[in-house]
Amino acid sequence: MSTDDVFVVPDDAVPGPGRMTRVEAFGERVMIANIDDAYFAVSDTCTHEDASLSHGALKTANRQVTCPLHGSRFCLVTGAALDEPAELPLTVYTAHFSDSRLTLHRRK
Ligand code: FES
């Protein structure tokens, strides 16, 4: 795995429980969510139009985020668009927390 495949999240961008943040990584904006200290990372830009999902609503119980513009929901585990108007899935990254450090990894 090359270093281009790993992004170390700055400490001040690591979200607290029930929160979302946004970072620039892998040439795009990536949204990071913390659900009960489990981290999820997906493309931050909605696949319908140019809306930032980190400004949407995090549904912790079902691991989903709702787009702030037209309300499509996305699964944070698979990236799937769960309802219209968005149809295409988000890119999903693997988030790994160890030694007090959160890293994001590109999936092959
Ligand atoms: S911009 Fe996200 S649903 Fe339209």
Plain-language structure description:
The chain is an all-beta fold and 108 residues long. It has a single domain, classed as Rieske Iron-sulfur Protein, CATH 2.102.10.10. The protein is 0% helix and 41% strand. A 6-stranded antiparallel β-sheet has the order 1-9-8-4-3-2, with no helix packed on it. Strands 5-6-7 form a 3-stranded antiparallel β-sheet, with no helix packed on it. The protein is globular and about 40 Å long. The N and C termini lie close together (10 Å).
Structural features:
9 strands; six-stranded antiparallel β-sheet; Rieske Iron-sulfur Protein; 108 residues; binds FE2/S2 (inorganic) cluster; globular; mainly beta; three-stranded antiparallel β-sheet
Short description:
The chain has strands at 6-8, 20-25, 28-35, 38-43, 57-59, 64-66, 73-75, 92-98, 101-105. With 108 residues, the chain is mainly β.
Q: Per CATH, what is the topology?
A: Rieske Iron-sulfur Protein
- Provide the domain count: 1
- What's the Cα radius of gyration? 13 Å
Distance between the termini: 10 Å
Q: Report low-confidence residues grouped into runs of 5 or more.
A: none
In spatial order, strands of the major sheet run 1-9-8-4-3-2
Q: What count of helical segments does DSSP give? A: 0
Structural class: mainly beta
Strand content: 35-45%
Assign the CATH class.
Answer: Mainly Beta
